[in-house]
Amino acid sequence: MIELGPVRVHVLRGATWALDGGSMFGVVPRAVWEKTDPADARNRVRLAVNVALVETAGRRVLVDTGLGTRWSEKESERFAPEGEHDLLRALDALGVRADDIDVVVNTHLHFDHAGGNTREVDGRLRPAFPRARYVVQMGEWEDAIHPHERNHASYREGDYVPLAEAKQLDPVQGEVEVAPGVRVVPTGGHTAYHQMVLIEGGGRTLCIPSDLLPTASHLPLPFIMSYDLFPLGTLEAKRRLLARAAQEEWALLFYHDPRVAVARVQKQGERVVLGERLS
Question: When you count CB atoms within 10 A of the terminal residue's CB, does the N or C end of the chain come out lower?
């Protein structure tokens, strides 16, 4: 658990899956990225889904919901999921029930960040957290319900359309405080309306950059996923984020890193590198 004054952040770890290494590191050659992220025989690297549960001022906020459990046999073979992907069971281990969640922030609506948004009840998909409002940027919602050929494979309507049907979707525009000390901040890059989350308390800051900085291996500026729709936007957003995080000693939560969940970064010459590991 990470404590920021009165704010507590639990990182739900353990669930991993496999994804193509070349796609995860873009133009960076395999000979470089496999030094830190070794690939299997199918060129896949192991990734995590480090979901954050934030407790602040009597409210509970989830940042993304992982992959969920709605896997077809073909998807299970392709992505090789391991560990606990049932977010409700992971929360139950902390003594937290589904109706204890007040806010779910989706940094974006790709299936590996929104897969646990919904669950099947009586043959229908319904919000997994019946009292929560689900916060997403309005532009991301519109892109998700009108996907194009380049991004449609990343979106599954069952992860988000039931939220709107249940009137639990809360589309926002721009930077918004969603709970005391918890703000969403648009970054662009990965998707046009991708957002990160800033959590502040006790004079300290924890940033969840989501797919802007998916793992600690992506700290070097050129390490940008091929999945990013706007890679130059990712580059500039990363540059700004890392400079500020190093200067102000922010902690960063790496959503997809199976080895380092939370750490600080520091300047080393012209580069920003991994510093103290917190989780």
Answer: N
Q: Which two tokens stand for residue 41?
A: 């025989």
What is the rounded CA–CA span in Å between residue 182 and residue 130? 21
The CATH architecture annotation of domain 2-277 reads: 4-Layer Sandwich (3.60)
Place of tokens 């940033």: 207
Q: Block means of pLDDT (10 residues each) for the chain, length 279 residues?
A: 96 94 97 96 97 98 96 92 93 96 98 97 95 98 96 95 98 98 98 98 97 98 97 98 97 97 95 93
Residue 144 CA to residue 199 CA, distance in Å, equals: 26
* C-alpha closest to that of 105 among 156, 170, 41: 170
Distance in angstroms (rounded) separating the CA atoms of residues 241 and 131: 33
Q: How far is CA 199 from CA 18, 85, 123, 227, 244, in A?
A: 29, 24, 37, 26, 15
Residue 105 phi/psi, 5° resolution? -95, 125
Residue 279: the pLDDT is: 86
**Is residue 45 within a helix (H) or strand (E), and if so which, with residue range?**
strand 44-48
Phi, psi of 79 (to 5 degrees): -100, -10
Q: How many residues does the chain have?
A: 279
